[in-house]
Give the backbone structure.
Amino acid sequence: WQLLYPNQKPQRISLPTYPFARERYWISTTSQKVWSGKVPKLHPLIDQIDFTLSLNQGVVFQKTFKSTDLIVKDYQVRHQPILPEVGYLEMAYAAGALVKQGLKLKLANMVWQQPLTVLEEKKKVQIVIQEKSEQLNYQIQSHEGNRLITHATGEIHAASTSSEQRISIEEIKARCTHHIEKEALYDSFKDNGIHYGAYFQGVSEVWGNAEEAFSRIELPEAFEQELQPYTFHPTLIDGALQTIAGIDDSLISSTGQPLLLFAVEKVEILQSLSVHGYAYVKAVGSQCFQIAILD
């Protein structure tokens, strides 16, 4: 101490009697995570934007379906796994919502031109969005060799606020003349060439008559966690379409083929879907139906 401070000696202080906190404040030298090159999915039915194709065609989104995806694996027509019509609705709406973020939208004038079968291990699909006047037009396409196939087209519009509508469930059930249990319903579909796996068995029971039908629909417990990212969850929306079977002689077309969706005039959203609900179908013409999903 004398050698260190020969002239003026500083005051000494006592050291603490407890151990010093063993905390490090040096910059970490551990390796950081490196980007894997994988782009996060934009939506369960949309993988990414194809920037190259978007330079010439509008905004182009891509989705690669696998043969093991439940949305195609559990939906088979004549033993062929196909993308159900409700899948196109959700893809179109999700793509429109990504382009017009923050806007409430509705779908209109949808036409299905050719089924999308997923026979190989993977099938790449593109959703092309183009703006025209005050609406968006969409096409859902895939390639078969060098040939570009358009599977569905339609329009996306800004939607106005709609007032809440009320329908009496008890009055509908009172008008119905027959009742179909779940097992009998899906056996009937299977007998007519449409096989629904567990993912698409969302109808619990159906009541119907010659002009209208009513059903209880629900998202199976195993898939309840999927509800949030969807606007039109395939299980619930297809369950609403399946309710058409409750109307007398509506399951088979005049040619003896399974009755599949061909066109939709419009789809409006009043509020978000819930895990459990009801579907009400009313015939408004020859093989033409109006459908409402109720809570």
Notes: The mean pLDDT is 88. The longest strand covers residues 147-158. The radius of gyration is 29 Å.
